[in-house]
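Help! Submission page says 'invalid entity' but I think these are all valid:
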Amino acid sequence: MPDTTNNPNRRSWIEVNSNSDFPIQNIPFGVFLTRDDVITIGTRIGDYAIDLGALHQLGYFDGIPLTDDIFLQDSLNDFISDGKKTWRLVRNRIGDIFDIDNPTLRENAEHKKIVLFTLDEIEMQLPVRIGDYTDFYSSKEHATNVGTMFRGADNALMPNWLHIPVGYHGRSSSIIPSGIPVHRPKGQTLPAGEDQPVFGPSKLVDFELEMAFITTDANLLGEPIPVDEAEDYIFGMVLFNDWSARDIQKWEYVPLGPFLAKNFASSISPWIVTMDALLPFRVDGPKQDPEPLPYLKFNGQKSYDIHLEVDITPKGSEATTVTHSNFKYMYWNMAQQLAHHTINGCNVNSGDMMGSGTISGPTPDSYGSMLELTWRGEKPIKMKDGSERKFINDHDTVTIRGYCKNDKIRIGFGEVSSELLPPFETKKK
Amino acid sequence: MPDTTNNPNRRSWIEVNSNSDFPIQNIPFGVFLTRDDVITIGTRIGDYAIDLGALHQLGYFDGIPLTDDIFLQDSLNDFISDGKKTWRLVRNRIGDIFDIDNPTLRENAEHKKIVLFTLDEIEMQLPVRIGDYTDFYSSKEHATNVGTMFRGADNALMPNWLHIPVGYHGRSSSIIPSGIPVHRPKGQTLPAGEDQPVFGPSKLVDFELEMAFITTDANLLGEPIPVDEAEDYIFGMVLFNDWSARDIQKWEYVPLGPFLAKNFASSISPWIVTMDALLPFRVDGPKQDPEPLPYLKFNGQKSYDIHLEVDITPKGSEATTVTHSNFKYMYWNMAQQLAHHTINGCNVNSGDMMGSGTISGPTPDSYGSMLELTWRGEKPIKMKDGSERKFINDHDTVTIRGYCKNDKIRIGFGEVSSELLPPFETKKK
């Protein structure tokens, strides 16, 4: 089936600013609460959210094999289970409905009133019920930076790193959508030079600039997914801030990996941008040397040119952009990650989320975490309001934005933005 | 509310052998498929499974605040969400219904035909939809054994181990109930003395003797659970075989922990034994030295005296019991694990599962894995059929059993048993 929705010249009868992340070529999927307190699946064009549940009830998806309630749900899991063919039929149909030359909905004021919402009328929710969440560690620059800091330049990359898309399991329950604030976590840390741990709020809360992909039901337990089929099971991508408490992490992570340093909260952008919308932005990835084992060898372009940037905004002050990076720097691509994850027979379900790991670029102004940007706090960042940051302060808001752009269109992810609150205090009973 | 169901002198009108794990004092909860292909929540007394959905429809739970369909579900999650007070009301009512002196159901042949099933008429399912699965590493003997093998006796325990109930996130999707066979996983390993990894079936598949507890909705994101309230949020326990591929684990696990070495399959026993049923078997745990930080200090007996044993049965041959251990050896208890898991605000939901980590006792015949029992294969185990085992062979069945016993009653978990199959082979298209 050809993809008819990526024509860069197509325009919508909904007005879209030239710098919008959401032209008619994007058509992301999300879940929102409407002004009537109804939860529904929707998409977005320009600054309008579109209620797909209502559109479906009004017959706009007639002819596409969909259950009646497929969009009247609090998660995209069932729709994602319907598979790639259905995703494309729906996305193409949405493109047709909102095409500037299609009068059907454009001229139907009553229907428009039912299906269109301004952004202040809705509240975005988590787009999927995440069954399992895995985080990879696939930026060579990030792994090298962290390795250099903790083990020295000679042992920066572990011997397995160039052979394995290293990954580990994370916590699903604490993944939250953009906008929800996060408390500074408490925990055990080992003060420098001491041999007994202390308890208290983390002093080194950090962001991690990541992206994540959302899968469909991919395989049965026991059956690996071949690397060249892996992309068929990826629905789309979101921006991802993998909040991290560096002092807690340092004390707890040997030998079984990060745990409480990460699972206090992980924030994602609410609109899932489909892989189909990202097709025009495929690029080659970094050369992989040594050559990967056969089950990780792939054909074609499997990396994506996605500009990424992070702002820190102190409360009541202006934003400072602290880094510019790009998803294309990732050493291991998503197809390799999914093939590796399933090579032992591990089963992947609809709504599972897999993070990229921190996306650091080659230059110091493109690193994906404060740990790297300030080199463990040794080189504080100067903020626009004159203050300095080594890590994240209470009441700072961290915002990640991401978009693809060529000379014809811009396809973006919006943002994931959340404020760091002071530690949670138990109320007296 | 007093617990009326643990009277050791109570008898049921269902005949129960004296060595049964399931006397009327147990009343575990599970999910099964009936002879009519209906899925329901049930309990078990002796060798009978009891359909709680049918019992509820017949009015036997009248007076207890339960929704009509609470037991007509494919998981216990909603019932577990109802909380400890409801669990006790239901468990006590079941005890009353099946008490030898209560004629109501005993003398109603028609009702008995509807609610009672012999074990060959049902098929046990996963009892909960597991949102998140965490595995701890809480046996000091196990951590010391593994540490000694990999880092030498002087560095056996990591500096954090005596301060932190070390844990990490595992994969929920590949947790399966007893009876489902498991394929030997393939993956990358680094042959001894080489510097390039190879791909192929794991040569060192192992079991891990564990138990796991199942939680209810315990807290909101941001709010820790105090250690002395933690047990209120634990519904019950199961036996757990945390299948492990030691050669894959060794190559992949630094620095982010085990991943593909574990997530190819994890097997649990299908009946959840409630914490109330285990009350008579509370004991003191090992002395904790150094004293834990205040948030991990607890009052009272929080360990449990549960006998554990593991059989290996080659295909067509007799079983060899390879270890006897006990849950009471665990250094960190479940209340401490749950308090630690949430001290940073991580939220815990109904149906989440938390594994103990391998349960090794103090003597070499009580170790909880082949890695330890054969000391990395250096001391093979002699099987009853004359063969030897360093790790698990294809077509071996591994069976874990567990029970509590005093001079009056025995409360058991049944078993978790599964066969290791040869590696999965992709069918030619």
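Support: the input was valid. A stray whitespace character was the problem, and the output above is from the cleaned input. Chain A has ten helices and 26 strands.
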